[in-house]
Structures are given as C-alpha cells and as structure tokens.
Amino acid sequence: MPSHIPPGRTPDVTHSDLTEIIDFSQVRAWPRRREAPGCDAADLLLLDTAAAWFAAGHSTEDLVVLDDRWGALTLALSAFAPGQVRTASDGVIAEKALEANARALGVAAPAPGQIDAELFRGARMVVLPLPRSQDALEDWAWMIAEYAAADVVLLAGGRDKHMSRSMNAVLQRHFDDVVPGRGRSKARVLTARSPRRGLPAPFPRRARREAGLEAPIELVSLGAAYGGTKLDHGTRFLLEVLAQQPDFPAVSDQHGSDQRLPQRAVDLGCGNGTISVWTALRHPQLSVLAADQSASAVVSTELTARANGVADRVSTLRDDALSSLPDASEDLILLNPPFHQGNAVDTSVAHRLISDSARVLRPGGVLCTVWNSHLKYRPWLERRVGATEQLAKNPTFTVTRSVRRSS
C-alpha cells in the first residue's frame, strides 16, 4: 500500500474528473428505459474515492470492477485507464446493461469475465457496489483477499439505507484494515486493505433439507445464490402442492384435450436448485433445464444436482429470463419469481418472467407458479399465458396452474 497513507486512514475525497469522464445521465438500467437511471450517488462516490487513491499514488493498473449493476463504474474506469480494467457480474442482466450503455455512450468496455480466482489475481484495486446479500460479500471478500495483490485497495460502496455495521464485520474477517469513509449524498464507501490470506473458503456451503421425498435434499450454495442453503417458504409450498396433484406433470395438447407427459421441465429462476432437483428425483422420466440470470445460482444448482445424484438429468442455463429459448418450445415451466429489486418490492421482474414463459410455452403447455398472494399476479397470468386456476393458497402464498392458449 502507499506508505504515505497509514493504516486506519484514507485519502480526502473530493469531486474528481472520474465523475465527468462519461455522460452519466445517459447510463440506464436494463431493460433500457428513459425513466430507469443506471447510476446513483454510491457509484459517483466510489469513483471519486478511487480517484483520491490514484492521486495519492496508488497504481492505476490491474483494476477490477465487481458486480457493476449498470456499467457506469466499468465505463468510467475504462475511459480513465484503457486496457487496465477487468469486470465481472453475478447477473447476466448487469452484463446486458454494460453492453447497452457502452454502445449508447460510444465507450469501449472490457468483456465480462467470471467471478473467480483469475478475475482477482494480482488486482491492485477492486471497486464493488455492496451486494444486498452479506453471504455474497463474504464469498467475494475471501476471493479478493486470497488472490489480489498484497497492496490491493477494496472500495465497497452503497447507499446508507442499505448498509449495516455487519458489512464492516464481514470485511474485517478478511482484511486487517477496514475504514468507513465519510458519507456524501446518503452514500458511503468502506475501504479495506491488508488482505488476510490462507483462511478457509467460506463457500460453497451445504445443508440437508426435508422436501417431502424419501430422503432429504442436500442443498449446495455459493454466497450470491438467492436463499443460500435454505428451503425457501414459497418453494416448499409449491412442492407440497405439486406433490398432491395427481396429474402433475402432465400437459395438454394444443386443443386442451389429450394429456401427455412432457420430456422436460424448465425451472425458471432456479436459485440453489431445490425445484430442479426435487423434480428430477420425484419424476425420473423428466429431464430438467434450470435457468437463472445469476452465475452463482447456476453453479449452485449444478453442485446441488451433483450432490443428489441427478446431474445427468439437470442441465443449466444462465440467461435473461428464457431469451435464448425459441418460441413455443417447452411443455412445462416451474416458477417461483422474485418479488423485489434490491430492497424494494418490485413486480416488474416477475412480469417479465411470466411473459417470457408465455412466449416459450407450446400451446397447451403449463406454467406452475407460486407467488406472494398480496401481489395479485393472477390477472397478469391470465392475460399473458392463458386460463389460470388456483391450486392452493395459504396465508402468504398462492400456487397457480396456467395453460398456454393456442393463440
């Protein structure tokens, strides 16, 4: 680390050229909409903090931007230090935002990599918007500490309302020097230096969960996979309901008459792989395609499938919804959609997943969905997919079965 910045201190942070180097007003979230800005006060504070370290003499080489939500950080640092930036995001949607914003601004962006040892090897600075999940922060902090350069500076920033002291504690487990910066515009940056190497890897984690089968399912999870090794309450209810349906997983032909068994089920938003593995274990005639926009979810599902002996029948796909699948190509989709974006309740993601499910289902194909009852998805399911019946409801969740209309 620069000798003139002693432990427990950080450079003074002021507004810098890094926050003027691209037109941030043109950065958008994905899907790209005029009313969806792709930059916030935490991003700008992260860039000004990085600039302060550069001004203090820290290297401008081997920069890593991790889990950049919209590409603003990657594009600004790439314009400042061409050829020196590596980037990777857990979500494919963040990659699409980066690509679209780079094209809109005419800025060259590095190709996204994977979140692994090679991403961080020799990194001198890592810039990270703090993830919502502290498990993700733990997983990534360990990798950074283990593989980055000895003088690495980790800048982890977020909005005050989304931060907690426990985030400091996570970083302190992996770095000897963690300093909270001064707040600005209701945002703050945590600076971590002096990595602690040789600690046991905190992930993947494993847990055995009862799911109504002859034996418990062993769930395996990386830090950023939604739900970790828990059996999500909505997923548990969905599986209980499906187990009681005498005709599951049968689907109808396009006229709604003859029923047949599909050869494959799609688990959309697979998370830790619970639904995929349960389906493969309970219905050995089925293969399962597990899809998620999260790289950690995809790997977690692969590990869970392997741990339960069904890896030969569970394949995975990292995708924005089901965008890489052709129209009218699938018979059966199982869906437990997210109901939040960050810390806010947001139905738009679920609406996109339902709409893409409708596109991918064959006429007569079936979408089985579990959802938080207060969000009232049934009219959207009826409009986008087709006839929808309620299979079950408890105080929190509703399970429905929607049949794709013929036209």
UniProtKB/TrEMBL annotation:
Its EC number is 2.1.1.172. GO terms for molecular function: 16S rRNA (guanine(1207)-N(2))-methyltransferase activity. Residues 218-400 form the Methyltransferase small domain. It is an enzyme of class 2 (transferase). It holds the Pfam family MTS. The keyword rRNA processing applies. Keywords: Cytoplasm, Methyltransferase, rRNA processing, Transferase. Gene3D superfamilies: Vaccinia Virus protein VP39. InterPro entries: DNA_methylase_N6_adenine_CS, RlmG_N, RsmC/RlmG, SAM-dependent_MTases_sf, Small_mtfrase_dom. Coiled coil: none annotated. CDD domains: AdoMet_MTases. Residues 38-193 form the RlmG N-terminal domain. This is 16S rRNA (Guanine1207-N2)-methyltransferase. It comes from Nesterenkonia lacusekhoensis.
